[in-house]
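Hi W.,

Here's what went into the run:
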Amino acid sequence: GAVVSQHPSRVICKSGTSVKIECRSLDFQATTMFWYRQFPKQSLMLMATSNEGSKATYEQGVEKDKFLINHASLTLSTLTVTSAHPEDSSFYICSARAPTGYSSYNEQFFGPGTRLTVL
Amino acid sequence: GESVGLHLPTLSVQEGDNSIINCAYSNSASDYFIWYKQESGKGPQFIIDIRSNMDKRQGQRVTVLLNKTVKHLSLQIAATQPGDSAVYFCAENNAGNMLTFGGGTRLMVKP
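Here's what came out:
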């Protein structure tokens, strides 16, 4: 199956700093990628949809100026958490939508996640 | 907004028994449903999917049942093994081609 990677897998930073998380589709091109956030013992919540070559679409309640998304190529999307605070500590997961005909209908392939801890 | 929910937050089964995990969805326009398995500290792993024009789909040891009349989805795992221990999420694909995840059920397999 298709592989999606994330880097870093784990990051610890001080409050006020910015953190960049990369999401890569390794063996297919993804025009659409998604960023989710998952707090402990909770489900995945969609933060935004990342579209290659255009602005990301943010879900209600997600601050676009705080969570900067860049989808500069068909295999890479980045999420930057700006001026991170302890409440931003969470598990961030990206997914990439497979091209038409690549696999099951409208399937998304998920990355392994990035654990962000803000001190 | 629309949501997907689960009845049981934790399910404990004996190794070798069958497991059934349930999910209720509320968006009647959803056309595609997926079950994911998530182990601790990892991303979701695709298990099985089903389109809305089907009511049953079988995979290896897993079966998904879809009842559109009552908006209910279930995942059946045959001969549950310790490696099946994880959190299971159902997700629905809505008209906007977005996935909405249910709350999750933790499956614990007792040896």
